[in-house]
Amino acid sequence: MTMRKIRFRRYATWLIVLAAAAIISGVWKAEQQNHQPAVGTEPYLTVQGNTANEMATPAPEIPQTPEPLSQRVVEYHMSVTLDATKMRLQGSQNLTWKNPGTVPVKELYFHLYPNAFESKQSTFMKESGGQLRNDKAKADSFGHMRVLSVKTVQGDDLLSRMSFVQPDDGNKNDHTLMKLVLPTAVLPGEQVTLLTQFEVAMPAAFARMGYVGDYVMAGQWYPKLAVYEPKGVRGRTEEGWNLHQYHGNSEFYADFGIFDVVIKVPAGDIVAATGFPTQQPVVSGDVKTYHFYADDVHDFAWAASPHFVYHEEPFSAPNVPGVKIKLYLDPKQQDLKDRYLAAAKKSLTRYSQWYGEYPYSTLSIVVPPPGGNGTGGMEYPTLITAWDATEANPGLDLERVVVHEIGHQYWYGMVASNEFEEAWLDEGFTSYSEDRVMAEEYGNASNLPIEASYITDPAALRQNAWDYNTRGEYADNVYTKAKLALTAIERQVGAQTMNKVLRTYFQRWKFRHPSTEDFQKVLQDVTKADWATFFDQYVYGGLMVDYSIESIHSQPVTVDGKPLVESTIVVQKHGGTAGTVPIEMHLSDGSTVVRMWTVRMRRCS
Amino acid sequence: MDGQDAQVQLKVQEKAPVDWAAIDPHHTLVLENRHINNFLKTTVDTKWSVRWNLGLTKLIEIVLNGVAW
Ligand SMILES: [Zn+2]
């Protein structure tokens, strides 16, 4: 997810604070603002949108990946029908789960995320106060998911074996995590298949899902199996389910597999979805039926609207074997097609060059209609949402959000960190990567000193998302402090080595759910240095760097018979240790002396 | 000097006294989040400076209260 709104508002505040500080000291040069791109901005190309009827999409593609990229623990075959008048979904699910562990498993757990919007008493609503980013839950923001039936393939009804659990806070009014006790345990390496009927009432667009008029964003729209972590995954000493409710400050975690989804919508709708269509949409009476397929992904999202202006463009690059970029524009922004496409191509080119291949055959970009920002700035496998189309002539925020969400295709999509417990591994890495693309491709560098200044409640980066006290504290840490920590590492090891670190991390851990410690190990392997102190202070610990000048005293001295002035400057460390602290001293005669306060890096043998 | 220590005293012997000093003026320490104490000036017009500082503190407070959420 992208945090633009928090950033922007507080950015303005801190500009004023810093400006005031500059007046007090009378020394600071005005920080360079970087609000506007200086160079490298994509020109506006007001090409008349070739509003290709997507019915003309060429014949279905065939899965391009012969070898599975992931372990494919889950296999979903689903069918869903959108009732656009009531904004409800009727769904059926045929789910197969393979036990990846070494002991029999008797219970399955499902995330029923839409139940976060069921009442004000859900954990999500209590924690968020009904607000996410700048978007407030509205009176019509209630929604829910009902599981209508669960059966085995033999037809045994399991509904009575279902119950809600609240492992994080014991809030009995929270129904976002469902436990299902199986009639027989699933043995290691064996599998179980369940047939489920469910219904979803979509909320008005808020917190990543919902509708605006006849636009609907279906994220978290199906009962989604939790992750069963074998021993050793993310440092687990005992295998088991990773179980959390849906929180105000938390995104998701799921296992890789296959998604085969039939989507039925009103005949006039155009559907965007994870994966690729296996056939042309078929219209029968009032209903249009789409069929999508995706593998080696851990989620499946889709969006529908009769107003999407659709464009597609094939693209390849040295590490992008062949992708179809699918753009679902709002009519208000149809002249901006080329900006979206350029941002997508630049992102794919850069990330694949730096980290590794983009192996999927599609990348879909959905632009929500005005008022749809609740669903904007969000990532799903092979599908992202941009900011809503409120502005006909937006600034570089348009590019930045696309660059950010495509970055997630690597850290959220393929590396697939646990966003409940270690969100920084996704948002921090994505923000760091986003900054690189924006600087290199758009000449739009982030102002890191100012961004650092608004971290007023630094905290540990590796902690449960809901353990941060506020939404702002969560965002400041898992986005900004995390990005700064990666930048600090980069400053120490150099850009080239940092790139090797991230590439090695991606290559070693893609499709495998790494932990913070796994990243630390890659860093130590590549740099052949011990990063324990750094991680203890800034990653596992809540420190920032904070040095101050406590005093300056001068007195006359005589050195070798010459009269000089000895100045004593006391520098105090309040936070963590930095490698080298430069101290610049200005003398009354106008000259400058620079001293370094240096710490040796311990090196591994 | 050892950066593990909490405090360091730097001594410089020059022809002129140090007027003011700044830690990391080029922002190489990206994790530094309180830049306001990175700078110290020895000689200032006390009266003027104090008054301005108070005025600005008020201004910052007003701005922060108005914008913060
Ligand atoms: Zn994000």
Just give the CATH class of the domain at 61-255 in chain A.
Mainly Beta
Q: Largest sheet of chain A at a glance?
A: 8 strands, mixed
Number of strands of chain A: 29
The termini of chain B sit apart by 42 Å
Comma- or semicolon-separated keywords:
heterodimer, A: 605 residues, alpha+beta, Immunoglobulin-like, Neutral Protease, domain 2, 5-stranded mixed beta sheet, 30% strand, disordered C terminus, B: 69 residues, two-stranded antiparallel sheet, 1 helix, 3 strands, binds zinc ion
Architecture overview:
The complex is a heterodimer of chains A (605) and B (69). With 605 residues, chain A is α+β, with helices and mostly antiparallel strands. Chain A has ten helices and 29 strands. In chain A, strands 1, 2, 6, 9, 15, 17, 18 and 19 form an eight-stranded mixed β-sheet that branches. Chain A has a five-stranded mixed β-sheet with strand order 21-22-23-25-24, covered by helices on one side. In chain A, a hairpin with a 2-residue loop joins strand 26 and strand 27. Chain B has a domain at 44-69. Chain B is extended and about 35 Å long. Chain B has a two-stranded antiparallel sheet. Residues 1-2, 404, 408, 427, 430 of chain A line the site of zinc ion.
What is the compact description of this entry?
The complex is a heterodimer of chains A (605) and B (69). Chain A is α+β, with helices and mostly antiparallel strands and 605 residues long.
